[in-house]
Amino acid sequence: MVTLVPAVCPQCGAKLKLPEGTKQTNCQFCGVEILLDKGEIIHLHREDVSDKVARLYSLADKHMGLGNFAEAYGYSKQLIELDPDNPIAWFFAGVSGYVLGKDDELAKGVREARMLIAKNPGDEKCKAAKERLDRYFAALVNEAPGWRKGKRPVEASRVGYAMLVVRPDDPLGWYYYGWATRQLGRERDAKNAFSQVGRLCDKSQGDERCKSIAKMMSEDSRSEMVVKAASFVDTIVKPFLVVLVFSALAIFLRDVPIGGIVFGLAAVITCFTVATQVWELDTVAGYSLAVLSISAMAFMVKSMPIAADVAEVQLGALIISVGMTVVAIYHLLRLGQALGLAIAVLFSIALAILLKDVPYGMAFAAFAVLVLVAAFFQSARLLWNFIRKPA
Questions:
Q1: What sign has the CA pseudo-torsion 379, 381, 386, 387?
Q2: Residues 29 and 113 placed together within one structural domain of the fold
Q3: What is the pTM of this model?
Q4: Pair 296, 213 in one domain
Q5: Domain range spanning residue 23?
Q6: Is residue 111 domain-shared with residue 14, that is, in the same domain?
Q7: Complete DSSP assignment for 155-188
Q8: Mean pLDDT, the chain cut into blocks of 10 residues (391 residues total)
Q9: Are residues 186 and 262 both part of a single domain?
Q10: Side-chain half-sphere of 315: how many Cα atoms within 13 Å?
Q11: Dihedral in degrees, nearest 10, Cα atoms 299, 304, 306, 312
């Protein structure tokens, strides 16, 4: 059995364990050569800088090829300290750091590598670094379609971002980054990315890459329509049908002693639940359905035998219904969409008509006029923005 003897590297201070009787070894951490006599260090061979640079480059390159990015990152950072004018070292540090989640490293590494290449394009290291950058970009181009096809926006966004860093003037990187960020709900980033795609492709009419992007964007548009339709069914149509069914059952069974009470309560609970759920959608359809659901709830309360003669319950249902309608009108105006403006006006007119006989109900006529004025100005703004929009 081999006995291990503890030792300390005099170069880097690392703790070593060496087989007993070892006369020569290299530190596994810094690589320095050590000579020993009876376990005592008698000579330390210090590498010259050029030898260490060559060794670190070899190790970084080896681990990059093996996919050991943590090791590659460590060796490349050491290499940069010794040889900061080596563009390949910066490239290694940038790519390996990005894979490890150090996002700033990629931009920094590529920027430094490109600066060094621009300073001395004829240098062999610079030529090799440029070739590696080109190969890296080509690998990203081949990788991106798989993430898009597999609906993996997180991975696609990282690949797209890396493409932008390596070649910011290539529209393909902007497209994949835009597609991914849209899938992730980052609409502002997506709009910026797609505007860059348009700008770059306008400069290169007829470019095959731009034709490919146009085809993918057409596919995305059709896919988004299907997704939006399915989402509309799930978030609006299905809840509306649930409200309709429960309300109908409550109305038909209101004269049945037990059935009227059971289904009336169920309808009230269902209407209120649906209203609160669709309210959170922050869309024209969501606010509209919320108002209809709360109005149905108020009607159910008014029709239920146990609540028909209780003035407080009737008043409470009315206040909730009117209050939600008023707030919904505000949000419909805020969204600034043509359909929402029209629905807001209709809701305000309906309130004015329904409450005209209620004490102070005529105040809602003035409210309806204010809503009409607000809708007019919003419509004028929409028309102005449409006119100013470039063709």
A1: positive
A2: no
A3: 0.52
A4: no
A5: 4-46
A6: no
A7: HHHHHHHHHHHH-TT-HHHHHHHHHHHHHTT-HH
A8: 73 74 73 66 56 85 91 91 90 93 92 93 90 93 89 91 92 90 86 87 77 81 59 72 74 64 71 78 84 80 63 75 88 86 89 81 83 87 74 45
A9: no
A10: 5
A11: 10
